[in-house]
Amino acid sequence: MAIIAVDMDEVIADALGKIVNTYNLKFGEELSRHDLVGKLLQRVLPQEHFDAIHQFLNAEEFFADLEVMPGAQEVLERLSREHSLFIATAAMEVPSSFTAKYEWLREHFPFISPMNVVFCGDKSILNADYLIDDNAKHFGRFRGQGVLFDAPHNAMIQGYPRVHNWAEVQDYFAREAVCTK
Questions:
Q1: pLDDT higher than threshold 50 for residue 56
Q2: Model-level pTM?
Q3: 134 catalytically annotated
């Protein structure tokens, strides 16, 4: 039985989709995920829009109604039957998100115990065998195996196993189980 830590934003919750939609509505733009491949959001958007983006990202309700990433619920429920599963979110970056993130998890992932939810900053403190995350910076000092969940901003990052969707996460852990037997 492995201990698997899973990030929230861009892994189980589609924060980028909401950011892009909100940005397009607010500024009358047609930004797409494709426009962000290999780039950070702040390098693509005009400087004069940053304050507005920062405001809606830091609004308490921003995280309350994010879409669930396709397949995340089903795969995580299956993995939770064979492994210890934790949600680990770097919520310290947006402290106002705690309540909304917690309630979102309870609604969409009721099979994950609240005792298995970790709000943190530096994920190197996690004592897990695996960390599924879209941000490779969290793998630097993490003692386990980082698994990079594909997102536009990390398209150029190499050096970690990469999964593009939740079906690939399921396949990855099926292969890992075979390799460790």
A1: yes
A2: 0.94
A3: no
